[in-house]
Design a protein that fits this description.
Elements lengths: L1 H31 L1 H23 L2 H12 L3 H30 L5 H16 L2 H6 L3 H22 L6 H20 L16 H32 L2 H37 L3 H37 L6 H9 L2 H18 L3 H26 L1 H23 L6 H5 L2 H16 L7 H21 L3 H17 L1
Length: about 475
């Protein structure tokens, strides 16, 4: 448990950094690149993301899980790593041929060419080994370095909309450098000289089982931007994408737990520790609702005062998109627990496939109906409904296997406290749309939420306060 907490803290620190980075770079990029260029960037990233995920066929999650299963046997671990690493390289070669054929026909061939560096980096990445071994410090440090280099590069080299190619290059090159740095860490953990091509079928089959739900998820996370581009223009893509990115900021803090929980659940599943799995899931559900509900209502209440000074009035439609898709903070945090943690660790990919396929199909249908009429708002509604159907399916199955009702019932107080916080913060928006008002809303919102939970003597809040007080006492 000590290592689990430590790994979570490493990941949490990185996720906090991820929260800070967009707060610094997003206003600058909005002013220097503008809606059209940012929309083009989002569109190309969506296309390359689909190609990358199709090529990797789910090997990231599968590799981390297989490492978690075999880490107690060094020879087996060496074999698993070497085989999967070789398979990743083979898949890179396979997808590279159609990628270059397609992009050379595109009007965005320069951007797609630069983006290939990022795709290459993703395929040679070995962070899945570190995640499976629960060595999150190395992964967090690598990710932190990549983001830091990116931020520095943006402010130094991106000056106007003509520098969009530089923006692509900064991300791609920074990722390549930091990904290559992990290669020098490998000898500490594995001997990667031995591999067996005969195991490729086994790994491809196992990975595909995890890949099916992933590709379905990808469909409703990325296809909406491509459909927006096809049915409207890149500005609409930018409005929707900026809203999604802002909503993802608080979500990242909650889902950080999933990266470190999955290997633990996989180990407990391997040892047949059913009660330990149930206990862990209940705790994670409570914590996710404790954090996600106030974040959802808080973001909905400040969007109208936040966007004008943060991104500029050219991006005012982003506020409406945020108000629509903010509930995915709660929905995706719950889906992260059931899908990325529980069903992945317990090898129940069929449930994930069904839920995500249903979400993907629903997403495409609703997008096709609503985008022509409501554009970015239609895409936002489609995303929200898709996430909802996925969560409903997954939790209807999970509740039959482990007891989760108690975790939800004990979290009703988080909903009530969040609603009260929302009403007060929403009323404050009449004071204006300056950063002073936004900070006031955030401060009062946090204060109201904490006071209500203190009066309710909430277990999670009390533990957090006790931990902080205990640390402070030790320092003294």
């Amino acid at each position: 448990m000590k290592k689990l907490v430590k790994n979570y803290l490493y990941n949490l620190i990185y996720q906090v950094f991820l929260v800070i980075v967009p707060l610094i770079t997003a206003p600058y990029l909005a002013k220097t690149l503008g809606p059209k260029a940012l929309g083009t960037y989002s569109y190309i990233c969506s296309v390359s993301s689909i190609i990358t995920n199709l090529g990797l066929i789910g090997l990231n999650n599968y590799g981390a899980r297989e490492v978690a299963y075999s880490r107690s046997e060094q020879k087996k671990l060496d074999k698993v790593f070497a085989d999967i690493n070789i398979l990743r390289f083979i898949l890179l070669l396979i997808i590279s041929i159609p990628y270059w054929i397609i992009i050379l026909q595109s009007s965005y061939k320069v951007y797609f060419s630069i983006q290939y560096i990022l795709i290459f980096s993703t395929f040679i990445d070995t962070s899945w080994l570190m995640i499976g071994l629960e060595e999150m410090k190395i992964v967090a440090l690598r990710n932190f370095t990549a983001k830091f280099l990116t931020v520095i590069g943006i402010f130094l080299f991106v000056k106007n909309s003509d520098d969009l190619w530089i923006y692509f290059a900064i991300f791609s090159v920074a990722t390549l450098i930091t990904t290559c740095s992990l290669i020098f860490q490998l000898k500490k953990y594995v001997n990667y000289e031995h591999f067996d091509l005969g195991n490729m079928y086994k790994y491809i089959k196992g990975s595909l089982l995890l890949f099916l739900p992933q590709i379905a998820t990808l469909m409703y996370l990325q296809v909406d931007k491509i459909m927006l581009k096809a049915m409207s223009d890149t500005s609409q893509v930018a409005y929707y994408d900026q809203a999604e990115k802002i909503v993802s900021i608080p979500l990242a803090l909650i889902t950080a737990l999933g990266t470190v929980i999955m290997p633990k659940l996989a180990t407990d599943f391997r040892k047949n520790h059913h009660e330990e799995i149930e206990k862990t899931i209940q705790i994670v559900i409570k914590f996710s609702l404790f954090a996600s509900l106030p974040m959802m209502f808080g973001l909905m209440s400040i969007s109208r005062t936040f966007i004008p000074w943060f991104l500029g009035r050219d991006f005012l439609p982003v506020a409406s998109a945020i108000a629509i898709i903010a509930p995915i903070i709660v929905l995706n945090s719950l889906a992260n627990i059931s899908g990325n943690q529980y069903f992945t660790a317990t090898n129940q990919t069929r449930i994930m496939t069904i839920s995500y396929m249903a979400a993907a199909i629903l997403n495409i249908i609703i997008n096709a109906i609503l985008i022509p009429k409501w554009q970015y708002k239609g895409a936002a509604i489609a995303t929200l409904l898709s996430a909802l159907i996925s969560v409903i399916i997954q939790y209807s199955v999970m509740r039959k296997q482990i007891r989760i009702e108690k975790a939800f019932l004990s979290s009703i107080k988080y909903l009530l406290a969040s609603l009260l916080m929302f009403c007060i913060c929403y009323a404050l928006r009449t004071l204006g749309d300056t950063w002073h008002v936004t900070l006031l809303q955030i401060f009062i919102g946090i204060l109201v939420y904490i006071i209500v939970l203190l009066l309710a003597k909430d277990e999670i809040l009390m533990k957090i306060i006790f931990t902080l007080v205990k640390k402070e006492t030790k320092h003294e």
